[in-house]
Design brief:
seven-stranded parallel beta sheet
Length: 155
């Protein structure tokens, strides 16, 4: 059975990711997100849930340390889980994991957030060149990401 890691930051990105929960039963699934009070229930609902440190760019100084820590923890989690595929809805939490996956020649599937209809996200810009499949939820995004695949809304 293929090992699939589903990773995103907390909030709306995680909500989008969890819309794909019907797929979880078809794979040896792991979920990785940031640890917040609002998503601690995931451990009770799903088998393999791992947390990264929550950080926000509005607190830039501490964010730099948390982001650096998360890169190392992502590397550790990747080696522990050893996924065949990494699926993400973004954002900063997932970018380093996507690059780690490519380093180990694993598949990366990136789903650009529904929140952006006509502008690129920073995570999208960073992952687009390495993604095996780059999926968008708005047709207008195909102009910005010509090699993307339009899938419609996942909600």
């Amino acid at each position: 059975m293929k090992k699939v890691m589903f990773i995103s930051s907390t909030g709306g990105h995680l909500s989008e990711l969890l819309e794909m929960s019907d797929l979880f039963k078809d794979y040896d699934t792991s979920i990785v997100t940031e640890k917040t009070k609002s998503n601690m229930y995931l451990k009770d609902k799903y088998k393999n849930v791992y947390y990264l440190v929550y950080g926000t760019k509005s607190h830039l100084f501490t964010y730099l340390f948390k982001f650096t820590f998360n890169i190392f923890k992502s590397f550790y989690l990747f080696l522990k889980i050893r996924p065949d595929v990494v699926v993400t809805t973004g954002t900063h939490t997932a970018v380093s994991m996507c690059y780690i996956a490519k380093l180990f020649r694993k598949k990366v599937i990136y789903i650009e957030t529904l929140a952006n209809r006509d502008t690129k996200t920073m995570a999208g810009k960073l992952v687009y060149p390495i993604a095996d499949y780059f999926l968008v939820q708005w047709k207008s995004m195909l102009e910005l990401y010509p090699k993307a695949i339009y899938i419609g809304f996942i909600f």
